[in-house]
Amino acid sequence: MKITFAEGLARAIHESLAADSRVMMIGSGIMGLNPAAQKAMEPVLNDFAERISVAPISELGLAGAATGAAIGGLRPLVDLSTGSFIFQAFAQVVNEAANIHYMSGGQTSVPVTFYSLAGMRGGGAAQHSHRAQAMLGQVPGLQILAPGGAEDAYRLMKWALQESANPTVYISHGMLFGESADIDPGAPMLPVGRARVCREGADLTIVASSITVPRALAAAAALDKEHGVSAEVVDLRSIAPLDRQTVLRSVAKTGRALIADECHRSFGVAAEVAASLAEEGLSSLKAPVCRVAVPDVPIPYSAPLEAELTVSAERILAGALRVLGR
Amino acid sequence: MPSLTPAERIASMLRIRRFEEQCITLSSHKRFPGHYHVYIGQEATAVAACAPLLAGDVIYTTWRNHGHLLARGADPGRMMAEILGRAHGYCGGRSGTLHLSVAALGIPATSALVGGNLPLAVGTALACKRRGSGMVVNFCGDAALEEGAAYEAMSLASLWQVPVLFLCENNSIPPELRKRGQFTSSTLPAKRLADVPGSLCIPTETADGADAGALGECLSRLAAEVRGGSGPRFVEVRCTRWPGSFPLWPELPCGPWQLDWAFEAKPGREDLAAWNEQSDPLSLYVRGCVAAGTLERGALQAIDARVREEMERAVQFALASPFPDASEAYGPVFAQAGQAR
Fold first, then answer.
1. Using an 8 Å Cβ cutoff, are A109 and B341 in contact?
2. Which of A84, A313, B23, B103 supports an S-S bond with A219, CB 3.0-4.6 Å?
3. CB A103 to CB B153 under 8 A?
4. In chain B, which among 301-320 make CB contacts under 8 A with chain A?
5. What is the distance, to the nearest Å, from the Cα of residue A127 to the centroid of all Cα atoms in its chain?
6. Which helix (H) or strand (E) holds B96?
7. Is residue A189 part of a domain?
């Protein structure tokens, strides 16, 4: 079955609402301003209207209410809208939801899913382009899912809504909505916390997540075709838990690592992966690790300015050639 | 609906007071680190708020939670063990005084962030509404209304018409203002706290935190309204700050409360004597019960002796509890699948 990222998301939500009466939604703007993607949500809106709570523009209140609803026995999916808006909700996501299980000594569990439509999306400018996964990665107690394709869009959302026992931030991305994949809905899911080797290779490892997954795959294809380089692509799938072992195993094989990350360069997901390679994989490395990440400046509006900062397939390819000494 | 006899009401208030006195004593002996907040002077509110609650109802409280937990039925020994950071504390020493919670009693998570619990309470009330049973009481202080979280939460509660009672204990009031009949918070520009939820179409009331009997009636009625499905309510309970809470660290200016203070004796410090005379819900209720002939002093002495002994035992239990093994620091960060309710 061929589905897009947006269809996978909508299908996962629909199936979860049908499967478990505890699943409910607070807000439903999952697809942002994308009309084609919005169309995929129509079955959810038509079939489960009474399971969707009306959401005013109150990210802080909504995040807390979803957390409280999870404490009360529901399994809410709360739409925190554009990725940058999770900052309005930070106090509840970071300082309430993430802490409750630990602070209570394990008495209380919080199976809430925070949906964040993150990322540089074209024209979002400084206040609508954030990717908060690295900042959230500093918060023990949060699970952070960052699907990079249609299959994980579907499977990780289903897992969050039906199986997870903990607060989960689902990092979606508007630029991924059209990505498609052939999936078998009945097949078992690669467990959460395991990265996926989505292209095998011998010469270097490209570590990617979320939007950088299709771009890393495009770069790997071009490396093969234009430069005779065999690149392995590892899709992290989740930022927390972070599957360091799969990355280390891949780099042990290839000896070289590039990390493609849409977070800002400093203290980003790439920085954490690089640190793990320095601590545990140094003997495997034949060359310094390369980070291809967003420079440490706010995101500008104008298209050529935004493009200058974007982690594109071309920049990943150029970075790979540097790692290879070419 | 459960209701309290005068003797039960006094015993409940007294348990809170004697527990807090033990806390202050343990702190002054450096038995636990960190700041803490006592509930002396507000006992009538917790007792009246928790009396009408049933199994399955939920309360959310704050850093000033000891009274609420005791009124809901928490074990003082395990509470004190948590405050001392011991292994037998309700949270195994991970919460301390600030985040004390007892999920089995419907106290699932306690936030020490000002206003942080109101959104949680609204969400749990939404779960109650969808399930068709249960209600939530959210305790906060007056300063919570200075936070955006409180406004957003009350807005959601009103929009969704969920069964939550917002109980705001306005303890900002120094005695000199109470005399002049002024009750606003120290730093909120609204003239009345209730104007804020009122603007969101939440029915509001105000009540006197020093009148334990009237509070019992008021909060039972409000709980019944909320439980009946008519949406959220907000009540401001006006409490006059106990002088022992004025210093940065709480203290007992004239030692533990004495039953005689409800009658002819007076605390030996002017501000405490004035507070005892005008604003202490315990002294005033005890005095009223004896004056009305409901209770005799001998019976009160017996209640007090029992409560003192219970709290001494709680302290002994807590002090005897070991500190947690250092390895306990590492978890539980995540619940296992299947563990979630």
1. yes
2. A313
3. no
4. none
5. 19
6. none
7. no
Contacts of residue A95 in chain B, CB cutoff 8 Å? 113, 116
| Co-location of A131 and A204 in the same domain | no
The H or E element containing residue A145 is strand A143-145
The answer to the question of residue A303 being in a domain is yes
d(CA A143, CA A93): 11
Chain A closest-CA separation from residue B181 CA (Å): 34
Residue B164 token pair: 């939550």
Q: Quick check: B112 contacting A, CB < 8 Å?
A: no
Which of A54, A69, A104 has the CB atom closest to B109's CB atom? A104
Reported as a single tens digit per residue, the pLDDT across A145-174 is 999 999 999 999 999 999 999 999 999 999
Residue A212's nearest CA partner among A193, A230, A239, A190 is A239
B130 and A24: CB-CB below 8 Å? yes
Domain boundary among the residues A182, A210, A241 is at: A182
A190 in a domain, yes or no? no
The domain in which residue A144 lies consists of 2-182
Sorted by sequence, the CB contacts under 8 Å of residue A164 that are 6+ apart come out as A111, A113, A143, A192, B337, B340
Place of tokens 């990780």: A156
List chain B residues with CB under 8 Å of A70.
Answer: 123, 340
CB atoms A103 and B99 under 8 Å: yes
CA angle B44, B167, B5 (to 5 degrees): 30
3-state SS assignment for residue B341:
coil
Instruction: Please indicate, yes or no, whether residues A114 and A208 belong to a single structural domain of this protein.
Output: no
How many interchain CB pairs under 8 A, A with B? 174
Distance in Å, alpha carbon of B196 to nearest chain A alpha carbon: 16
* Residue A191 within any structural domain of the chain: no
d(CA B271, CA B322): 40
Name the DSSP class of A94: I
CATH number at residue A244: 3.40.50.920
User: Does B75 contact A at CB distance below 8 Å?
Assistant: no
Query: What predicted TM-score, i.e. pTM, was given to this entire model?
Result: 0.96
The verdict on A92 touching B (C-beta cutoff 8 Å) is yes
B203 in A contact zone (CB under 8 Å): no
Select the residue from A21, A23, A71 to test the B interface by mutation, using most B Cβ atoms within 10 A: A71
Residue of A100, A161, A192 to mutate when probing chain B, most B C-beta within 10 A = A100
**B40/A95 Cα distance (integer angstroms):** 28
Residue that is last in its domain, among A182, A217, A238:
A182
Q: Give me the phi and psi of A235, to 5 degrees please.
A: -95, 115
pLDDT by position in tens, chain B (length 341)? 458 999 999 999 999 999 999 999 999 999 998 899 999 999 999 999 999 999 999 999 999 999 999 999 999 999 999 999 999 999 999 999 999 999 999 999 999 999 999 999 999 999 999 999 999 999 999 999 999 999 999 999 999 999 999 999 998 766 565 544 555 555 777 878 999 999 999 999 999 999 999 999 999 999 999 999 999 999 999 998 899 988 889 999 999 999 999 999 999 999 999 999 999 999 999 999 999 999 999 999 999 999 999 999 999 999 999 999 999 999 999 999 765 44
Q: Which residues does chain A have with pLDDT short of 70?
A: none
Does residue A277 share a domain with residue A303?
A: yes
Q: Are A23 and A80 contained in the same domain?
A: yes
Residue A50's CATH number = 3.40.50.970
A99 neighbourhood in chain B, CB within 8 Å: 99
A221 and A172 together in one domain = no
Rounded CA separation B197/B194 (Å)? 6
